[in-house]
Amino acid sequence: MNHDIPVPALGPQGEVMAHAVDACVHCGFCLPACPTYALLGDEMDSPRGRIVLMKEVLEGALPLADAAPHLDRCLGCQACVTACPSGVPYGELITSFRGWSEAQRERSPLDRAKRAGILKILPAPKVFSVAARVGQYAKPLAPLLPTALRAPLDLLPERVPAMQPQPPVTLARGRRRGRVAFLAGCAQQALTPNFNAATLRVLARNGIEVVLPEGQGCCGAAALHTGAREEALRLVRQNLAAFDPEQYDAILSNAAGCGAGLKEYPVVLHGLPDEEQARAFAAKVQDISEFLAGLLHAGELEPFLPTSRPLSVAYHDACHLAHAQGVRAAPRELLRAIPGVTVVEVPEGDLCCGSAGTYNLEQPELANELGVRKARNILSTTPDLIASGNIGCHTQIGSHTRRQGSRVPVLHTVEVLDLAYRGEL
Amino acid sequence: MSFSPRKTALTPGSGAPKPRSKGTPDNPLAAELTRSLGPRKVLSNPSERRNYRYDAIQFGATPLAVVLPENTADVVTAVRAARAAGVPVVGRGAASGLSGGAAPALPGLVLSFTRMTRLEVFPQRREARAQAGVVTLSVTEAARPHGLIYPPDPASFRTSTIGGNLGENAGGPLCFKYGVTGDYVKGLQFVDADGDVYELTRDAYDLAGLLIGSEGTLGLITEATLRLTPPPKYTRTLLASFAEVGECAEAVSRAIATGAVPAKLEFMDAACTNAVEDYLALGLPRDAGAVLLVDTDGDDLETVEEERALVEAACREAGGTVRRAATDAEAAALWQARRSVSPALGRIRPQRMNEDIVVPRSALPEVVREIRALGDASGLPVVQFGHIGDGNLHPNILFDPRRESSEAVHDLAHRIALVAIRHGGVLSGEHGIGTMKRPFMREAVDPVTLAALWDVKRALDPAGRLNPGKILPDEDVEAHAHP
């Protein structure tokens, strides 16, 4: 659409934003894909509406404070990107906009403290683990607390597992077919250590040596998507220094949000001296399911043991896998490769579960409504197992299915594969 | 039976924050509306109001207030408040329209129907009763369990609302065999400029027919009774490619001359095919000058196959090559491709002038070739696609307002419209006249007929408060819309 965004004044990120605004023809095809439009039914809480709001703030036609509530309600799920025939890079727009506008936001001291807390605790596994343990004991008090404090407690599992040590190098079993670098992730190390353990076992079994490069840190997505651009830049550069793409066949992540974050590095560094380096890095990044599906296609994936009984697996598309990375087929193909598994599709499968990074903490009411709806949709397929490729979805879906009285296990896709290799499905 | 559509806005008891204006209404109209309807149904902040001034083509004037009615009584209250304030009223569905119809030409009241989503299906009567804000596709979704469908299928059917479809008398690929929206309306309820409510059937004077396609200039449609039909048992799909668009049009004329009645006959030229291919990567023939997409359907498989064979033969005779869709999934993908054409054109230029002409089928080859030639001579990218079986073509002029002159675009649009008129065609098949084609109306409609249209408008809306600046060329009220 037409705009008067002062691009030169905004710098390289201004180019990113202006390009996205340019590309939007305001056709409205994104509306039915948007979770907040589905819940609220108004134009300002749709992708098309938000693009107009951002455009007008950038043009100086609308005060940021007027647009902010609607922009804050965006989950960043990027379902609109999948739905958009015009190719608007909405994800790049909202991320860049949040980075640009954060400095101008007027936030209460409490709000600032909460955001700083999240950004400090989330990327630090050890701190997070301690916080989760404290939270676990505070859980019974949850009903007495205000929503903002209740939301994180509600998300915690009943029992926070012990942290598991992660070897810096996991050797390949049998003939070595490849060598990859692995991003260990943050919160999931504390909440679901088995994600990484299962990943290392599955890769090793397939002859892949896995390196956890020293000095790696948080992928930076949480900081980036909440507008903490400086912090995000620091983390991005830390990882660029830690991972040398030339040394590995691939750089793997098993968290959809982190994988999407890593693939976003060239956009974050657009116009900066290390943009090229980010490009070389991002070209090597793959989700664990993409990498394993590559082995499957090449006929090199070790066969799975059959399940003990026919199993119906409801596969949930994490937004950051399906919409942000366009990875839909790979996890399904891998699950179907297990003899005895049937993959079932979830009604409204494209609709976000409501977890979306820190959304649960910042927009607890909307997140809750989406979580309830997602759990109901998944359980309507009466699955034996629920599989997904993202820690956020995992926590959200587990918490809501349990609340709806279900005991169906919620697993990471790679955990299902690991169990299949061990003959425990 | 009652059906709750999936996209229910604001379900009762929803814990989610409701859209509401926190600021003080900055004008008397918003204040009055907030008093009578409550803050939940009225939007008055600038950020809210400015998001209700566009459709899929045009940006118009910022409304003074936006009302999200939940029932007909709310519409009546809002219309009366606007009358008392002496400001215009524009109805709006999902704003996926392509002629500027829902973009206000003047500041006033916008009524957004997205919360009026009640939908009931009456299988015995093969009817549905839908409020204006019901999303088009959900009518078929609700009817299907009863062995019924709602055939009108505009490209935007996942987004667009029944109210908007009625306002524009929307068509779609299926209209070649099954007809347009208006053919499926048994009755409707509307609110006039004074806030009076009418229940129309199609008996006596077909006033419902008058309201359908009137783009909200004669009344605000609040509910409709829609006709449902059983879906055909069998459907077969084929894709034919041609070296140039004229051949494609010839194939269509030949196919229809053989007596075949395909369900859908759609075409897109090379630029459209490539824009869609960039989006969906389906393996469409990128180097073909034009492709034709055809469905034959019916309850008798032999006839369906026979019709497909007739169309195939016609395509080959016109110089085309034919590919059959092997599976339902392949057919569905091809139709998704066709439905995505219009917005996918944004990949070529950020803006477009969108034509919606209808010409006699006998003139199709000549018309598409003339338009192709006009485009080539202009230096502006002109693409063509549309419901070619009906002679309903959508030539689009793509442009970048920062690089290409709007006079040149407008001039070319005018010349394309004149091609249609010269061949005995009309200015709009389904998108409406809106503000886009309003300037060409004097050439398309003779003065006596235009005067009659004006008489009708004055009879139903004497003060000119309903969607002013649309359809009828008017010396007094000039549209302040800007692209």
Automatic annotation (TrEMBL), chain A:
Enzyme Commission identifier(s): 1.1.99.14
Catalyzed reactions per annotation: (R)-lactate + A = pyruvate + AH2; glycolate + A = glyoxylate + AH2
NCBIfam families with a match to the protein in the record: PRK11274.1
Name of protein: Glycolate oxidase iron-sulfur subunit
Cofactor names: [4Fe-4S] cluster
Domain of life where this protein originates: Bacteria
GO molecular function, one term: glycolate dehydrogenase activity
Organism per entry: Deinococcus budaensis
Electron transport recorded as keyword: yes
EC class (word): oxidoreductase
From TrEMBL, chain B:
UniProt GO MF annotations: (S)-2-hydroxy-acid oxidase activity; FAD binding
InterPro entries: FAD-bd_oxidored_4_C, FAD-bd_PCMH, FAD-bd_PCMH-like_sf, FAD-bd_PCMH_sub1, FAD-bd_PCMH_sub2, FAD-linked_Oxase-like_C, FAD-linked_OxidoTrans_Type4, Oxid_FAD_bind_N
SUPFAM superfamilies referenced in this protein's UniProt entry, alphabetically: FAD-binding/transporter-associated domain-like, FAD-linked oxidases, C-terminal domain
Coiled-coil segments: none
Keywords: FAD, Flavoprotein, Oxidoreductase
First-tier enzyme category under EC: oxidoreductase
Disordered: annotated segments: 1-35
UniProt cross-references to PROSITE patterns, sorted A to Z: FAD_PCMH (PS51387)
A Pfam family of this chain: FAD-oxidase_C
EC number(s) stated in the UniProt entry for this protein: 1.1.3.15
Domain FAD-binding PCMH-type per the UniProt entry, residue ranges: 59-231
Cofactors, names only: FAD
Protein family per UniProt: Belongs to the FAD-binding oxidoreductase/transferase type 4 family.
Name listed for the protein in its UniProt record: Glycolate oxidase
Organism: Deinococcus budaensis
Taxonomic lineage from the root: Bacteria, Thermotogati, Deinococcota, Deinococci, Deinococcales
